[in-house]
Amino acid sequence: MQFTIIAAVAGIIGTTGMTLFLYIIDKSGRINANMVKALGSAVTRTVETSLLPGLLIHYISGIIFAFLYFNFLQMLQMNDVLSLVLAGGIIGFAHGFAFSFVMVILAEHHPVEQFQNAGFQVAIVHFLAHIFYGLLVGLMFSLYSV
Fold first, then answer.
1. Close Cβ partners of 14 (under 8 Å, ≥ 6 residues apart)
2. Which of the chain's ends, N or C, has fewer CB atoms near its CB within 10 Å?
3. Which sign does the torsion angle of CA 100, 102, 108, 109 carry?
4. Rounded Cα–Cα distance for residues 15 and 63 (Å)
5. Which of these, 58, 128, 136, lies nearest to 93 by C-alpha position?
């Protein structure tokens, strides 16, 4: 039971960190990195009503992925904080690498024009955001297991 609660909390913390990272990049005005509104508007087909559905999709996904990360980290049988945080970052690296390719391909079919062009800069920012997510989830796992 404790594993489940800590993994869910890790997903919430990791997703919050990732979302804030993307929000700051998006607010700089240089890169369209608003994953929450991109996810939400894929469902609602409008940016104006995308925030709540986007947050729900992003946080539910973040919690589910935290369980996957926790299971993988548990298999590694590491027992020090730094190794677990770095391992989480490496998992985030792989996750972000794969996601960035998928995102660029799927963006072309997004129903809202604003999110249809996910080029190299957008992919790199999301790649980095996934590494940040992995570091946070790895840190939470280390607090649970060490």
1. 62, 65, 66, 133, 134, 136, 137, 140
2. N
3. negative
4. 8
5. 128
pLDDT, tens digit (0-9, with 9 covering 90-100), for 101-146 = 999 898 899 999 989 888 899 999 999 999 999 999 999 999 988 6
List all residues 6 or more positions away from 68 whose beta carbon is below 8 Å from its beta carbon. none
The model carries a pTM of: 0.94
Ramachandran sector of residue 46 (left: φ over 0; alpha: ψ -120 to 50; beta: rest): beta
Tell me the two tokens of residue 107: 């963006």
Phi/psi for 123 (5° steps) reads: -65, -45
